[in-house]
Amino acid sequence: MRMKLIAGNWKMYKNSQEAKELVQGLKDCLSKPLENACVVVCPPFTVLKEVCQVIDGSSIKLGAQNLYWEKEGPFTGEVSAGMLKNAGCAFVIIGHSERRKYFGETNESVNKKIKAALENDLTPIVCVGETLQQRQNNQTLRVVEDHVEGALQGIASSDILKIVIAYEPVWAIGTGVNATPKQAQEVHKYIRSLLGNMYSQEVSKNLLILYGGSVKPDNIGDLIKEEDIDGALVGGASLKVDSFTQIVDKSIKANV
Ligand code: 13P
User: What is the rounded CA–CA span in Å between residue 59 and residue 79?
Assistant: First the structure.
């Protein structure tokens, strides 16, 4: 059985004090070791170190929200995969739609970033998903296929299971309107079929695919029941101890 993975994308929220309070609260609530499940928090770069110190000794893992693919050099404002590893990260979100929209992220840059993450032993959480207009024009599966194929260009079969994919329909992000379990399941299943064609049935069966977009305590239960949904990438609801721990609890319960 595939494990459950619940990741919180804190986006550009939380100063040092707020970050420490939030993650301490999560640590207190998630004190039991997790069975066949993983919880990740992805704070802004500025508080990675502090969050890392708080989660030490717990089952919560650390992730970042972006990286730059070069090892080091004159790239003002950028942070490398090696630096993230050094700061205690195990995961990194790559290709979030906000980065595609506001910061010119393309399939090519996403692909380079995934390779840099893998070289540094970081698990990339690769985001794919269509806009509202694309969905209305019946282009959802085509867009997702383009994102998946573009992201995974040249990724060897020996590395592919080190990657996590997150299906995040852009129209569901921060809107309060989540994809229905049926809509999400259709795309997740399609992604599995793509992986089967590109790699193998084993990869298709084992790769983790998360859903993201207005995940809340009251909708996670139905989403996680779907066969091809292995967890969630949570934005707004990951910023509060209560809502994030409820999402984690409900996802884990689906395992039993
Ligand atoms: P919301 O959960 O706030 O809709 O954000 C989802 C997201 O973008 C996670 O990466």
Answer: 25
Question: Which residues are part of the catalytic machinery?
Answer: 96, 168
Closest ligand 1 atom, residue 98 Cα = 8
Predicted local confidence at residue 63, as pLDDT: 98
Ligand 1 pocket (Cβ < 6 Å) reads 9, 96, 168, 173-174, 212-215, 233-237
Residue-number span of the structural domain to which 128 is assigned: 4-253
Number of Cα atoms under 13 Å in the Cβ half of residue 41: 36
Q: Find the CATH number of the domain harbouring 99.
A: 3.20.20.70
Please tell me the distance between residue 160's alpha carbon and the centre of ligand 1 in angstroms. 24
The domain total for the chain is: 1
pLDDT digits (tens, 9 = 90+) for 179-198: 999 999 999 999 999 999 99
Q: Which residue in this structure is represented by tokens 């029941």?
A: 225
Average pLDDT over residues 119-146: 98
Determine the pLDDT at residue 256: 53
Q: How far is the CA of 111 from the centre of ligand 1 (A)?
A: 22
